[in-house]
Design a protein that fits this description.
The protein has about 230 residues and is an alpha/beta fold. It has a single domain, classed as P-loop containing nucleotide triphosphate hydrolases (Rossmann fold), CATH 3.40.50.300. It is about 40% helix and about 20% strand. It is built from ten helices and eight strands. The protein has an eight-stranded mixed beta sheet with strand order 3-4-2-5-1-6-7-8, with helices on both faces. The longest helix has 13 residues. It is globular. The C terminus is likely disordered.
C-alpha cells in the first residue's frame, strides 16, 4: 500500500507530515518513505542527500530494473528505509517512469509513505495516479484552499490533513466544505514540532502532537488492517 501526501502550495508542511507518518507506520511494521520532493534527508536529520536516488532511476526510463530500487534504500530509523529523491538537476523524467515506479513499489508487501511535494512534476503526477491513496496537506489559508480545489489531483484525494495554526479563521469544517473531502486529522502548528525538525531528531523524538493524529489518519485509510474501517 502506498499513501501519498501532497500540497498545492509550498511551505504547508507536507514533508514533515510525510516523514512523521512513515515513522508512525514503522512502529507497527517494516515501512518505506518515498521522497519525490527532495526534502526528506533534511527532515530526517541526515548529513547529506543520498545519490543516486529515485529521480535518477526514473530518468533511466520506465524499463529501469526494479531490483535497483533496493540498492537505493537507506535505513533512517528502526524498520524504516528511505528512498531518496536523488539528483534533481539531471533533467525531467517521463510520466511513464513515474507510473512504473508506483507499480514497482506497490508490488512490494511493505507499505510506503510518499512525499510528493507540490505535485507539479509530470512524473510525480503519474506516480500519484497509479499509487491510489492521496492525501492533501493544507493550512487554514484561503489561498492554499483556493489552489487545492483547482488542483487536478484533488478529485482523487481521499482526505486532507489540516495544519491548524493559531489565529486562523478557517478550520476543519471549512476545509471539508471547500474541498469536499474529510479532514483525516488536524495537527497543531507547535514550536516543539519545528524544533524537532530543526535539530534533526524527528526520528527519535517524534512529538506526540504530530504522531498521534497521524496514527489516527493512517488508521482511517486502512494502513493498519481491516479494523481501520471501524
Amino acid at each position: 500500500m502506498l499513501v501519498c501526501f501532497w500540497s498545492p502550495k509550498g511551505g504547508s508542511g507536507t514533508s514533515v507530515v510525510s516523514a512523521a507518518a512513515a515513522l508512525v507506520l514503522a512502529r507497527e511494521t517494516d515501512a518505506r518513505i518515498i521522497d519525490l520532493a527532495g526534502d526528506q534527508p533534511a527532515v530526517l536529520g541526515l548529513a547529506h542527500d543520498p545519490v543516486p536516488g529515485l529521480a535518477d532511476w526514473m530518468r533511466a526510463g520506465p524499463g529501469a530494473p526494479v531490483d535497483a530500487l533496493e540498492h537505493l534504500a537507506l535505513e533512517v530509523a528502526p524498520r524504516l528505509t528511505l528512498l531518496a529523491a536523488g539528483d534533481p538537476y539531471g533533467g525531467p523524467a517521463l510520466p511513464e517512469s513515474g507510473a512504473a515506479l508506483a507499480v514497482a513499489l506497490d508490488a512490494d508487501p511493505r507499505p510506503g509513505v510518499c512525499d510528493l511535494g507540490r505535485l507539479d512534476d509530470p512524473a510525480a503526477r503519474a506516480f500519484a495516479e497509479v499509487a491510489g491513496v492521496g492525501i492533501v496537506v493544507v493550512r487554514g489559508c484561503y489561498l492554499g484552499l483556493r489552489r487545492a480545489v483547482r488542483h487536478p489531483a484533488i478529485v482523487d484525494a481521499v482526505g486532507a490533513i489540516l495544519i491548524d495554526e493559531h489565529g486562523r479563521s478557517l478550520g476543519a469544517p471549512d476545509v471539508e466544505d471547500v474541498l469536499g473531502i474529510p479532514v483525516l486529522a488536524s495537527i497543531p502548528a507547535r514550536t516543539s514540532i519545528a524544533r524537532a525538525v530543526d535539530a534533526g531528531v524527528l526520528p527519535t523524538r517524534l512529538p506526540d502532537s504530530l504522531g498521534r493524529p497521524l496514527h489516527h489518519a493512517l488508521l482511517r485509510v486502512g494502513c493498519f488492517g481491516s479494523e481501520a474501517a471501524a
